[in-house]
Design brief:
The complex is a heterodimer of chains A (432) and B (143). Chain A is an alpha/beta fold and 432 residues long. Chain A has a 9-stranded mixed beta sheet, with helices on both faces. In chain A, strands 11-10-12-13-16 form a 5-stranded antiparallel beta sheet. A 4-stranded mixed beta sheet of chain A has the order 21-20-19-22. In chain A, α5 crosses α6 and α8 runs parallel beside α9. The two termini of chain A are 31 Å apart. Chain B is α+β, with helices and mostly antiparallel strands. In chain B, strands 1, 2, 3, 4, 5, 6 and 7 form a 7-stranded antiparallel beta sheet that branches. The longest helix of chain B has 11 residues. Classes of the chains: A alpha/beta (432), B alpha+beta (143). Chains A and B meet through α11 and β21 of A and β1, β3 and β4 of B.
């Protein structure tokens, strides 16, 4: 089953023609409306008319998260604010978040992409979708919500957390599709066991899990514990949100919706494009977005693209699971975390030379973050109360900056290993 | 009237206290009194030593997080109600005690109690007015 069969099964030559036409329009749009892109293209000696084939894409400059930050908040928007109907934001590497905007048409495009994803997974308007992704500035909750409504399914906008209520509604409403992070799904599965709920008696049949890395091992666990088909979804707010790529029940990677995005794999060191089949950094260009078109966005995600035929009949290339990052970003409980965010908090507190370590572990099924902070003389007090108060204030500030809770552990100086030049900031003990 | 106290941050892991005392021993520093406040994750060691400034430097050089704080050492009669009397005097003028710890001196029969309060000068004044004996720093270091 398809949501937009014409596009999803389009022969590749026709798809290439469509991509070129849309790329040309996009380049013209950003050249005319976004000073940042006009300058970048001019510097590279490119005018919109120079884009004659898809091969010309590799001549275009990259866009990075830093570019979004430098143009905070709305500098990269290609439409006047009166055309923008929604904003989302993701946590930035330091203080300010990365802001993305959508026109009315963008919301329709995005909703269609998510409806495609749901149909690809086997969903229909008869389904009851329990959406346990977070609602708010994060794109996960609203993205899936609009897609499920577009499809005509029944959405339960429960958002993340409150596990006992999740399980109650899952039983009472007869939820058929669960959408959340894979680690939270696993947690729900364990809580079912603990509370004596038999998954075989539930109506769950499909799980759409994303926003954090997971593995085949986790898929097997999820399918066994929850009695459903577990499928992977990919997206990032800078590109649109969830619904950039979706796995079909063949389970051979995620189809990238290529009528809306061009995907490239590059060598992260040289920036040179790599052929299909070779691992490298995923780079995405949007083809249909109005408010925030994005040209050759460096996702920092490492994956492989495959273009062999898929049993589902879709002609879109597939990306394998994301196997790593080319920067130091961590995904903890579905939230993007950069070590530099911790650094900025410590600097804010007056620690002039902060030494810290993020210790990430998986306790049971949930990610656990402990932050070791070397206690400098400046922070030290002979009073226990003062140190406990420091821990409490750091914890609160980190919660507000990162959006997730962390335990603070004060440690003695020189406890955290120093390596040549660059300090080790992360100890990730999770086995995914 | 004030006594220099040295505080050291210690993680709750084995061998840390031993390391502090080793550093002090190697630098010929004698401990007069000590107390440890601990939580689940860390402890704060507070020391009165014979030679506070070199002790501070030695611990600092050994890589510890160290600070010095001023405290007062009060002589408390070794008899029932001795400490209560001192506490009452401080309470009457609303001086809040952060913490205290006691040790014995060899010379007399009186106990010594180290007080850490925010309003140090005020505490000294009110105790003296009430004829409570406060030891000079030099006397405490030389005990």
């Amino acid at each position: 089953m398809y949501w937009q069969k014409e596009y999803e099964t389009m022969p590749r030559e026709r798809l290439a023609d469509l991509q070129l036409e849309r790329l040309q329009q996009t380049i013209k749009r950003v050249y005319d409306n976004v000073p940042f892109y006009r300058n970048k293209l001019s510097e590279a000696g490119i005018e919109p008319g120079d884009i004659k084939s898809l091969d010309d894409l590799s001549r275009l400059p990259f866009t990075t998260k830093q570019d979004l930050r430098d143009n905070y908040p709305f500098g990269l928007f290609a439409v006047p604010m009166e055309e923008v109907v929604r904003l989302h934001a993701s946590s930035g590497t330091t203080g300010k978040p990365t802001v993305v905007g959508y026109t009315r048409n963008d919301i329709v495009t995005w909703s269609d992409l998510m409806a495609r994803a749901l149909v690809m997974a086997g969903g229909s308007k008869k389904d009851i979708v329990q959406n346990a992704y977070g609602y708010g500035l994060f794109t996960g909750g609203m993205g899936i919500h609009y897609g499920a409504e577009r499809l005509g399914a029944t959405v339960v906008p429960i958002s993340g957390g409150n596990t006992s209520r999740q399980l109650m509604l899952m039983q009472d409403f007869g939820t058929t599709i669960l959408t959340c992070t894979p680690s939270y799904a696993l947690y729900l599965g364990e809580e079912m066991v603990n509370t004596g709920i038999d998954p075989a008696k539930l109506k769950l049949r499909i799980g759409i899990f994303g926003a954090e890395p997971w593995s085949e091992r986790m898929r097997n666990q999820l399918e066994a514990k929850l009695n459903l088909t577990a499928l992977d979804i990919y997206g990032l707010s800078e590109v649109i949100g969830p619904g950039v790529a979706m796995e079909c029940p063949e389970k051979k990677g995620m189809h990238i919706f290529e009528d809306n995005f061009i995907a490239e794999i590059i060598d992260p060191e040289t920036g040179q494009p790599l052929p299909y089949g070779q691992p490298g950094e995923l780079v995405i260009t949007s083809l249909t977005k109005e408010a925030l078109p994005i040209i050759r966005y460096r996702t920092r995600d490492i994956t492989v693209l495959k273009d062999d035929e898929c049993g589902c009949g879709r002609t879109f290339v597939r990306m394998e699971r994301v196997t790593g990052r080319t920067d130091d970003m961590l995904i903890i409980r579905g939230v993007n975390v950069f070590p530099s965010q911790i650094e900025s908090v410590l600097l804010e507190f007056g620690d002039t030379e902060p030494h810290y370590l993020l210790v990430v572990d998986r306790k049971g099924t949930l990610d656990d973050l402990e932050i070791w902070v070397e206690l400098s003389d400046k922070f030290f007090s002979d009073k226990v109360r003062a140190l406990e108060d420091l821990e409490k204030r750091l914890r609160a500030r980190i919660l507000s900056v990162l959006g997730i809770s962390a335990r603070i552990k004060l440690v003695e100086p020189r406890t955290i290993p120093r390596s040549e030049g660059k300090a080790k900031r992360v100890l990730d003990k999770r086995e995914i | 009237m004030k006594v220099k106290q040295i505080s050291v941050f210690l993680e709750n892991k084995s061998g840390r206290l031993a390391q502090v005392t080793r550093v002090l021993g190697e630098n010929n520093i004698n401990i007069r009194a000590l107390s440890i406040a601990d939580t689940t994750d860390f402890g704060i060691l507070r020391l009165i030593v014979n030679n506070p400034d070199p002790a501070y430097r030695a611990l600092k050089d050994a890589g510890f997080t160290v600070s010095t704080t001023e405290v007062i050492a009060v002589e408390v009669k070794d008899e029932p109600g001795g400490l209560a009397r001192v506490l009452e005097i401080l309470q009457n003028v609303n001086i809040n005690i952060e913490y205290l710890y006691a040790f014995l001196q060899k010379a007399t029969n009186a106990a010594l109690v180290v007080f850490r309060v925010e309003q140090l000068d005020e505490a000294i004044k009110v105790l003296q007015e009430n004829n409570i004996s406060i030891l000079e720093g030099s006397r405490v270091y030389a005990l």
